[in-house]
């Protein structure tokens, strides 16, 4: 089905003279009752990528806040979270369980690129919304016509790669670049975007190394990249791999200009584990405020978010991933508010194409605005550099 055909189908799902509530009941939207909306999520509560579970915990906490304030149009949100260990076959199994046994209305913030891709075919065959996938893989926009029920949320990894390439060309036009990327669609998208952005300067990439998310270490790859003579390192991987690569580079005396990915830029969970002095000077593209950055200590958005965390997610790390989970939860809530009483799965997807909002924890100047032609929610990025204490937004 072509993208235009799908949009037309969504727009045409109306039953004149029947209220949205009656329509939802008549069609029997799973997970929707007069008092509840049941939402599903797969995420790595265990395994090598378990640090990403912070996203889901923050989402659950925000839903608790919404429920405490009366829910959405009188309905409470129930989030069913299942552990997939960041294993694609397990994700498919747990996705089927959410739809067929748990009877959720839709999926929100399933974590991961390989896991999300593995389950995408099932969701689209079943016509169940797979919304705001925790991944910036380009496939969520490249293949929207083929998989219209699946939608990402954050900036694409290809755009992230192009942003880093632009900065490298502006500041280090003669750089020798080494790239360490996660060997999946996400890491490959970053590499593709970086190469596209470098253009004719792509020959300045002197070494490419990949790693699996399950690899015990990336030490050998770091040593190999140092031997290449590179003076710029672009690192894309999980928090664990990022910690290891930054620590190893410092320990062997390699001092390139280092770029790391936004998903692994948390000060408390990543940079502190490396050693703040060892991480000084690292650059990252970002779109969310880092709660560990003193720059935002008097920011009203951060203060409100911190108060929320203290009340509804007490004891959890106030890190970048928790901000991410909160922002996605807020986006889900906005979609459901716009649905009003028409909670058919078709209308839920339709409303993701009708968003126009600012979120308090997004960086200044960035906004969510979607349409039928541009369904992807977050597209903007800003560069920031770690000064040994906090992240500072860069003007270049």
UniProtKB/TrEMBL annotation:
Q: Which SUPFAM superfamilies match?
A: Periplasmic binding protein-like I
Q: Which Gene3D superfamilies match?
A: 3.40.50.2300
UniProt KW keywords: Signal
Task: Name the CDD domains on file.
Answer: PBP1_ABC_ligand_binding-like
Q: Name one Pfam family in it.
A: Peripla_BP_6
Leucine-binding protein domain: which residues? Answer: 36-387
Residues of the signal sequence? none
Family under the similarity heading:
Belongs to the leucine-binding protein family.
**Protein's UniProt name:** Branched-chain amino acid transport system substrate-binding protein
Native source organism of the sequence: Ottowia thiooxydans
